[in-house]
Amino acid sequence: MRELTYYVAVSLDGYIAGPGGEFDTFLAAGDHVEPIWSRYRGTAPTQLAEAAGLSVADGPFDTVLMGKNTYAIGLPHLPNPYQHLRQIVFTSTPSQRPEGSDAVEFTTADPTAAARALKQEDGLGIWLCGGGALAASLIEEIDRLVLKINPVVLGAGIPLFGSAGYSPMAWKPTRTQAFESGVILAEHVRA
């Protein structure tokens, strides 16, 4: 059975982006980049990875899930951001397809039912790359939680799990690695 991994950058105070979707305060350079990329190869938009000389081949995922706001971050320049992966965008307006997005699957399907069906398919892992609201709706289906914790406090923004409400859920740490850049890679599995 395939696993769903929520792999995302997050601030010290638990935000995956600022109030307007800003993520430019997260570190894109430093001693953490190469080791994290080698572990989670293929988790950058295809064109950006190739421009940086990073191979997207042989990564742990073959499918990426995202909400419409996460997808929209790359528009209009990257309408087909993860060309090397199967891309599924959850949206309430699937008919509004940006030009150049033919390889992207837009769906109004229930995210939980969709994730369960994807887990039954053959293939590599499934990567949930955002956003917070989608993560909140999929929290029961997430098998692994991988956080790139950045040394910044945002104060407000999009929470890691949207507005999931109070519902404690235990996770077991499997690996933690701190870097001189201040980034901490924290990996967990459902307890």
UniProtKB/TrEMBL annotation:
UniProt-listed Pfam families: RibD_C
Protein name: Dihydrofolate reductase
GO biological process: one example: riboflavin biosynthetic process
SUPFAM superfamilies assigned to the protein according to its UniProt record, in alphabetical order: Dihydrofolate reductase-like
Residue ranges occupied by any Bacterial bifunctional deaminase-reductase C-terminal domain in the UniProt entry: 4-185
InterPro entries: DHFR-like_dom_sf, RibDG_C, Riboflavin_Biosynth_HTPR
Listed GO MF terms: 5-amino-6-(5-phosphoribosylamino)uracil reductase activity
Organism: Microbacterium sorbitolivorans
